[in-house]
Amino acid sequence: MSKKNKKKIDIKTIRSVNKNVRSSTRKLKPILKSIVGKKVDKAIRDLTFSNKRISKDIKKTISSAVSNAENNFQYDIDNLFVKEAYCGKQVIMKRFRARAKGRASPIMKPYSNLTIILAEKQKEKVEKR
């Protein structure tokens, strides 16, 4: 087997993870799909005016990633955009509700984990010929 030459691409990315979001992945995915590819300030603005309850937690996670990028890595926050946003399943709290005739029906309270990856847009250098 021959080793291929791997070029290391220097893309500035920052990741923020929220491990316990009290919502199902089914409710998170449409909101996350709507912010992927947008600049950070527009994504936060859209989440601010969203009428979904869970958009507040997504906004906090994005804000955390932005502050990490600014304070820890000295990235320019004007050039940041949402590169990836995805969620996964976490634990499910199982409760029950008492019903008629001594029966019980289950209540599932799902948790999710939320990962947001931001990247900095690189300015392309134009060569004059």
Q: How would you describe what is shown here?
A:
With 129 residues, the chain is of the alpha+beta class. It has one domain (13-120): Ribosomal protein L22/L17 (Ribosomal Protein L22, Chain A, Alpha-Beta Complex), CATH 3.90.470.10. It is built from three helices and three strands, in the order βαααββ. The protein has helices at 25-35, 40-48, 55-71, and strands at 13-21, 80-98, 104-120. A three-stranded antiparallel beta sheet has the order 1-3-2. A hairpin with a 5-residue loop joins β2 and β3. α2 packs antiparallel against α3. The N and C termini lie far apart (42 Å). The mean pLDDT is 88.
| Count of DSSP strands | 3
CATH architecture: Alpha-Beta Complex
Which regions have little confidence, pLDDT < 50, spanning 5+ residues? none
Order of helices and strands: EHHHEE
Terminal CA distance:
42 Å
Shape: elongated
Subunit arrangement of the protein: single chain
Q: State the fourth-level CATH superfamily.
A: Ribosomal protein L22/L17
Counting DSSP H or I runs of 4 or more residues, the number of helices is 3
Strand content: 25-35%
Q: Write down the CATH class.
A: Alpha Beta
